[in-house]
Amino acid sequence: MLYRIPVNDLVSKGLSLGDSLRIKAVFELAQRRQVAEIQEKPKISNSRDVYNLFQHLSDHPYEQFWIVVLNKANRVTDRIMISEGGIAGTVVDPKKVFKLALEAFTCAFDPCSQSPI
Q1: What angle (nearest 5°) sits at the alpha carbon of residue 4, between those of residues 52 and 92?
Q2: 41-117 maps to which CATH number?
Q3: What is the pLDDT of residues 42-92, one digit of tens each?
Q4: How far apart (Å, rounded) are the C-alpha atoms in residues 6 and 46?
Q5: Which of 110, 6, 102 shows the shortest CA–CA distance to 49?
Q6: What is the pTM of this model?
Q7: Cα angle vertex 94, ends 92, 97, to 5°?
Q8: In the chain, what are the domain boundaries?
Q9: Which of 1, 28, 101, 105 is buried deepest, with most CB atoms within 10 A?
């Protein structure tokens, strides 16, 4: 859970500012690398596939709502964040969801909600 501790708290626990920033940078780079490794368009066959696609968001402190844009072969063509709220929820406007899905020329889309732990 070290990645959730703010830099100021790490400094107050005895780490130098430089060390605290390096620790936070390592976690940020690890998360970005995990996202970057998803180069191939994954196929969505079940809910586990969608969970794996958004697993990197599990430590995000605020609730988010996303759609996964799929082609005819159920391969992911895009992931679009619709809204980000607070700790208890987020507001989703269906008009915005359908507008963005249509603009992406989607054949299908999967709505996904990420909730903070």
Answers
A1: 55
A2: 3.40.140.10
A3: 899 998 998 888 887 777 788 889 999 999 999 999 889 999 888 888 899
A4: 36
A5: 110
A6: 0.63
A7: 85
A8: 1-37, 41-117
A9: 101
